[in-house]
Amino acid sequence: MPLTRWSGSMFTPGSFCSTLDTEEESTSRGTGAELCQGSLISSASLDTLIQHLVPTTDYYPEKAYVFTFLLSARLFIAPHELLGRVCELCIQQQELANTPLDAKVKKFGPKILQLLTEWTETFPSDFQEERMVSHINSIIDRIAPCDEVYWKKLDQLLENLKVKLASMNYRDVVIISIAASISDKLVAFKTKLTPIQKDMLSICSDPFILSQQLTHIELVRSIRPCFTEQEKTSNLEAYVHWFNRLCYLVATEICMPAKKKQRALVIEFLIDVARECFNIGNFNSLMAIISGMNMTPVSRLKKTWAKAKTDKFFILEHQMDPTGNFYNYRTALRGAAHRSQTAQSNREKIVIPFFSLLIKDIYFLNEGCANRLPNGHVNFEKFAELAKQVGEFMIWKQVECPFKQEERILHYLHTAPIFNEDGLCLASYESESPENPLEKERWKSLRSHIGAFRVHKLNIFNVHPSFHVLNTDHPAGPQFWESPEWIYWTTHWQ
Fold first, then answer.
1. Are 333 and 248 in the same domain?
2. Is residue 295 located within the same domain as residue 374?
3. 41 in helix, strand or coil?
4. For residues 202, 208, 214 and 220, what is the CA-based torsion angle, rounded to 10 degrees?
5. Last residue of one domain, picked from the residues 415, 440, 466
6. Is residue 103 part of a domain?
7. Which of 415, 438, 473 delimits the end of a domain?
């Protein structure tokens, strides 16, 4: 079937380069040879693209092509079916069913091992299916009689795969344990009087250290390639949940203090944390902090902002300004990416993009271009661009965080109670009185919602010290005891 080519550049994640040696690319490949000549592929049939993936004794596909096709092929064919097709083509083309094996198989063995190595390193979750491992064993069974070293290399490949899969499962366990700790905290609100909440500054007063701990969390939560519906949902939700939590935590920390001076100090501290996040290359936490400080309950605290030193904040806001499709941010991101490419230390390799914008870019690229062209060809140019963006993110997320973990700070960031929207509004109005009729009406409504709480709270503090069971039939509703408003009012209405 005819092919269409394009002359754009393709991206390949450098960290996915195989450790196996290969010969220079050759064009003596038969029907697939034309694919690797001249310009890069723009479109082709699925069968032709699969053929181009299959190595021979004197041909190996470009790493950019391998990554792009393995990333996109699952939209048209299941991974286990694709690997089955690859193995079948290898057996036919190299006549692996014949005995004794031809000497040329010795040249083919390293090539197929390299393909399997790149596949398992880049998309390890594909190999959670037994059928995938079965296909690997099948092809190695064919070439092993030619050289027993292939068995050793296969063992190493499977061992590395096992480690990667275990690491992926560990990340899932971490997220689950974090969710469980938050759940435990909510249960505690229901069953006993909660001590006054500590604030962020009492846990960590060094903005540099706090920005490092935020970076720890971002790198742990970095999304890996995942293609089952359950994985897609859990991974995306984990990232969105963390961003939203950090936004609300920032707003809660600012609205919580009763005194204007303390609120101003918190604002200045969080500005310094945001600046350190920018210096590190942690743009996701930076945007979450800025978003939290721009929430209405925080931005309306004019007297508090007037007392704080905010010059650095406006500079950071300018960097993350959405004008021009986030032009300033994208410029800063390119600078951080360039620094990462030339860096010698993990500290300089860190790049954590603003995740929501990354997803938006990928979404519109995917929705704006068809997967197949009118002639039935796979739109490979589209998937090359998708692979460029996904590949960059996969490289960035593989960086090991160089900063020491501070468990006390991490625990606070994950589990500290946060206000919901009503709680933030009420705390904001208590800190600085409403200025217009709309705010006054909102304040009145919120106060009436928990009006009975003041009397009820006094009754609780008058009970016997050994009795700590809260009444979940409170007029404000049982959900009241599951929120940090409880802590706020025990702080402010003593």
1. yes
2. yes
3. strand
4. -130
5. 415
6. yes
7. 415
Residues 210 and 130 in one domain: no
pLDDT digits (tens, 9 = 90+) for 192-203: 333 345 789 999
pLDDT, tens digit, for every residue of 346-379?
999 999 999 999 999 998 988 899 999 999 999 9
Helices (H), 281-417: 283-293, 296-299, 302-307, 311-319, 323-342, 346-349, 355-368, 380-397, 407-415
Residue 116: exposed, middle, or buried by beta-carbon count in 10 A (0-12, 13-18, 19+)?
buried
Q: Does 368 fall in a domain?
A: yes
Domain for residue 32, yes or no?
A: yes
Q: Exposed/middle/buried for 1, CB within 10 Å: 0-12, 13-18, 19+? A: exposed
Are 158 and 197 contained in the same domain? no
Residue 60: both structure tokens together: 């190996």
Q: HSE on the CB side for 32, CA within 13 Å?
A: 21
Write the CA distances from 272 to 4, 22, 207, 258, 335, integer angstroms.
52, 50, 6, 22, 21
Residues 122 and 53 in one domain: yes
pTM of the model: 0.74
User: Which domain range does residue 476 map to?
Assistant: 421-492
Among candidate residues 449, 458, 456, 455, the one with its CA nearest the CA of residue 429: 449
Whose CA is closest to 347, among 396, 282, 401, 392?
Answer: 401
- The overall longest dimension of the chain from CA atoms, in Å, is 91
Helices 485-492 + 453-462 axis angle, to 10: 70
466: which 2 tokens?
């050994």
